[in-house]
Amino acid sequence: MFGSVFTSATGLLDRRFTVNVLLPVLVWAGGLTAVAVSGIGWPQALTWWKARDGAEQAWLAVAAVAAVVLLAYVAAGQSMALTRIGEGYWPARLARPGVALQRRRRQRLDLRTPGGYERRYREFPVDESDLLPTRLGNVLRAAERYPGDPDRYGLDAVFFWPRLYLVLPADVREQVDRCRGALDRAVLTAGLAVLFPFAAIPVVVWFGGGWRLWATGAVAAVVVAVLAHRSAIDGALAFGEILRACFDLHRLTLLAQYGLVRPETLEGERALWMALQQQLYRRAADEPELLRLRPADQ
User: Fold this and answer.
1) Most CB atoms within 10 A, among 6, 15, 185, 199?
2) CA distance 262 to 239
């Protein structure tokens, strides 16, 4: 009964939402349900379920699916917050030891070797003052700072990314969404795994018993959290590289969409991006003469 109702419900939802959010939440809710049923007793719970008539079972199945979908939407709304926690946007007192650890990791890299230089490129921002206290945070920050590097394009990725995304070809957006979805799924899975032992305690207290299963679930949750964290880092590396590629290959398309004259040199492009950001953000550029519109017939 529950399976058919769940299949019908997921058929109405976006596939990306189903895979990246709904399924992890379903597994999490299923674990809590198993702890509760263990406290009640599996034979007693099965007897209670069989005693319900078809209509009651149907309503219970619908209510369970609705609860899982609602939890999934709540979890999806917290995706950005979970990612920021995973990146290390913490109070300064908590972040300081992690930043010091990441600084030591960065300083130990041997930039004279291809491997060391590649790790610095992919896993750490160029400017040491941009370091965050977690590896995940530094991988994403390295990608965010890539187009804004004054020795590259001087382009603020955080400001221009929503605009660039809208002019990307459909197949490129699909790749971006796929990489971002994998990252979000891993972060959500890690967050739910960390939360599971704490959420299961009141369930055990309320339904009685189940402590052995709780302990087993807590150990499994720790393993899942570690694996999901590693998966999140891999996802961040993939997303970061495709983010860099989008700016490398499509930033001039964005300039064309603004109708601006394409600069002839990289230095001119850097100045133009700065002037455009100033114009859009504060409604006035320091060098407005750089913002030259193409003739209508070009």
Assistant:
1) 185
2) 28
